[in-house]
Design brief:
Number of helices: 4
CATH architecture: Orthogonal Bundle
Low-confidence stretches: none
Order of helices and strands: HEHHEEH
Helix content: 55-70%
């Protein structure tokens, strides 16, 4: 693994929780559906072996809840939903992410030769 690939893997691990909370804010989902939804964005694709430990940790921290729902395609599925605490955490994380992204974007633009305050 190159240094850039290692950096990307570390960055993904730090952002997957934020991505999962945002997906669940739109609608409840089961783990497989959540992994499929994240696979639609570059850099966010994860397997079920990654998503379930994150979901378990979020549930233990009471940021999400889960319930079993009958399925016509086999056994019941565990569906995950955002809790009120999860919604508060999601909003806080989104604000912090936006501030971080703005600061980092500014540094990147300046390194590329843009002057401070230049529009994109």
């Amino acid at each position: 693994m190159t240094d850039a690939e290692n950096w990307l893997a570390q960055m993904r691990r730090g952002t997957l929780e934020l991505a999962i909370l945002n997906v669940l804010a739109r609608e409840p989902r089961h783990g497989y559906g959540l992994a499929r939804r994240l696979a639609g964005g570059p850099g966010l694709a994860i397997g079920e072996g990654t998503v379930y430990p994150i979901l378990n940790r979020l549930r233990e921290n009471r940021l999400i809840s889960s319930r079993l729902v009958a399925s016509t395609e086999g056994p019941a599925r565990r569906v995950y939903s955002l809790t009120a605490a999860g919604e508060r955490q999601r909003r806080d994380m989104n604000e912090r992410w936006a501030a971080l992204a703005e600061s980092l974007d500014r540094v990147i633009r300046e390194a590329a030769g843009a002057r401070p305050g230049d529009e994109r």
